[in-house]
Amino acid sequence: MVIRTEGLSFSFDKQQVVKSLSLQVPAGSIYGFLGPNGAGKTTTIKMLLNLLKTDQGSIHIFGLELQSNRINILSQVGSLIEQPAIYHHLTGKENLLNRAMLLQVNENRVDEMLKLVQLTNAAHKKAGQYSLGMKQRLGIALALLSDPKLLILDEPTNGLDPNGIIEIRELIIRLVQEQGKTVFISSHLLSEIEKMATHVGIINEGELLFQGSVKDLESISHPQVQIEADNTVDAANLLKRHDFIVNNINHERLYIPFTSKQQIGEINSLLVQNGITVFGINKQHKDLEKLFLDITKSN
User: Fold this and answer.
1) Three-state secondary structure along 225-254?
2) Is 159 left (phi over 0), alpha (psi -120 to 50) or beta?
3) Of the candidates 161, 190, 213, which is a domain's last residue?
């Protein structure tokens, strides 16, 4: 485990915001740390980065206890908490050169990082003129400059448009697949985390409600396939004859339990080949609130 915590707790004054948290983040994983705003995500991340002192519990990173190995551990960790700390009056490249000088990192890394986050063409543009997505990518480049083994990102897609979200998602996947990094990423968006994470931890009101692989999460969240068709009754009857379970139906849509992407393709082909016009077919997620309720009930 790259990150392992046991009984991690923290309080602001008398209000406990993190309650006996035990995280397990495997090497080479994208670990999605999920929870609504105010659930304790940022507080947990600040404890992992030794920015807040824990009330109780232990933190081990790379198998080492954090307090007694702080400098050794943090030299191998890159982080982006909320907004990136960039100088708006400097260009993207100048921001990276400034950080490289502070970290005593070879300047060759600067051009490598600009290429990695696809900012080479904007290297000499003032960072203040960057879009939100470009600023976030520059923030990730700054976090990666020292070539850390672990990257910790707190809500990196917050406030981004759809293109910006896709850019960050693809970059994170590339970092893990091509460079063997481990990424710990917090978010309040279940649908976004599910597109890239290999493992998930769900926190609410400071408590860890679920931890496991994305496949484990799907077995709890019961996603559905939503089908919009010109004749939902005929579509439902056809699917039932081919052993599909129809959960719900109205005059515009019907829903069946999701099992795989291949299943969606099979359903679409079956309907079209039998003369039913399909207006739309997609995987539907439960929102976090419903998922929390389900998990709480199951516990």
Assistant:
1) EEEEECCHHHHHHHHHHCCCCCCEECCCEE
2) left
3) 213
Residue 71 and residue 52 share a domain: yes
Give the DSSP letter string of 160-193.
Answer: --HHHHHHHHHHHHHHHHHH--EEEEEES-HHHH
| pLDDT value of position 290 | 67
- Per the structure, the complete domain to which residue 200 belongs is given by 3-213
With a cut of 70, which residues of the chain have pLDDT below it?
Answer: 218-221, 285-299
Backbone angles phi, psi at 100, to 5 degrees: -60, -40
* CATH number of the CATH domain containing 291: 3.30.70.120
DSSP-derived letter for residue 287 is P
pLDDT at 294: 66
Indicate if 152 and 238 belong to the same structural domain.
no
Is residue 31 located within the same domain as residue 142? Answer: yes
Measuring CA to CA, which residue among 266, 267, 235, 230 is closest to residue 248?
235
The model carries a pTM of 0.74
| Cβ–Cβ < 8 Å for 81, 139 | no
Both 208 and 255 in a single domain? no
Of 213, 240, 274, the residue that ends a domain is 213
Q: Do the Cβ atoms of 19 and 206 come closer than 8 Å?
A: yes
Cα 58 to Cα 61: distance, rounded to the nearest angstrom = 10
**What's the mean per-residue pLDDT of the chain?**
84
Q: Say if residues 278 and 239 touch (Cβ distance below 8 Å).
A: no
Q: Give me 24's structure tokens.
A: 């397990």
Domain count, the chain: 2
Q: Which residue has the tokens 């083994």?
A: 149
